[in-house]
Amino acid sequence: MSTSLPPSAVGRLHVITDFRLQQRFSHAELAARAIAGGADTIQFREKHGGIRNQIIAAKRVRVMCNEAGVPLVVNDRLDVALGVRARGLHVGQEDMPVAMARRVLGPAPVLGASASTIAQAQQAETAGATYVGFGPIYPTRSKANAGATQGLDRLRACCDAVTCPVIAIGGITHRDVEAVLDAGAYGIAVLSAVATAANPRRATRRLRLAINEAR
User: Which terminus in the chain has less CB density within 10 A, N or C?
Assistant: First the structure.
């Protein structure tokens, strides 16, 4: 059964920054709005552009996170995470293996790992992942190759199969939060639900309230 860690270790509301689905806000501006709305983890995700530009953007997000006392986790890029002194790293199935990332990071930093099967989740936990990002739970337009929708039953099975926190991801809105947490998820991660919302701060606040009420 998936268990809980203190909020300081793994947050319950992970907001992923974006500058592909929307260009209204920079990564830092989006992070600031999400933090104001109640996000307790910010994940910097940038798939395009050179390493220098990624570091510059990630540093600006880190400043926002440090001022608010909110952890910054960098998606995919270990070099960026180390370069900007982020709180942690999140890797996908096509990225650096979890065990290798853990060796480089050491035991303390947060290390998240994406999984779309129970076997992947178990392997990630064994290799040293702090938490598993499981999904997509619902259809999502944030990731073109997100894979088959997992649904609540598979989410529940995943939560029962590991002891680390499971962060549900993929197509989750504030209306889905209660069902997702009831299935055993420790928290949620969202991208388009905040990034493409008319008011990202308000959208994050709705998600935060839904989590608080469900708990």
Answer: N
| Residue indicated by tokens 């839904």 | 210
pTM: 0.93
Q: What is the maximal distance between C-alpha atoms in the chain?
A: 42
Question: Which residue in the list 2, 12, 33, 45 is annotated as catalytic?
Answer: 45
Per the annotation, the verdict on 59 as an active-site residue is no
The one catalytic residue in 143, 156, 201, 202 is: 143
- Annotation says 47 is catalytic: no
Interatomic CA distance for residues 170 and 135, integer angstroms: 6
Chain centre distance of CA 214: 19
The verdict on whether 114 is a catalytic residue reads yes
pLDDT digits (tens, 9 = 90+) for 121-150: 999 999 999 999 999 999 976 665 656 899
* Stretch among 6-10, 75-79, 163-167, 188-192 having the lowest mean pLDDT: 6-10
Active-site choice (77, 87, 102, 114): 114
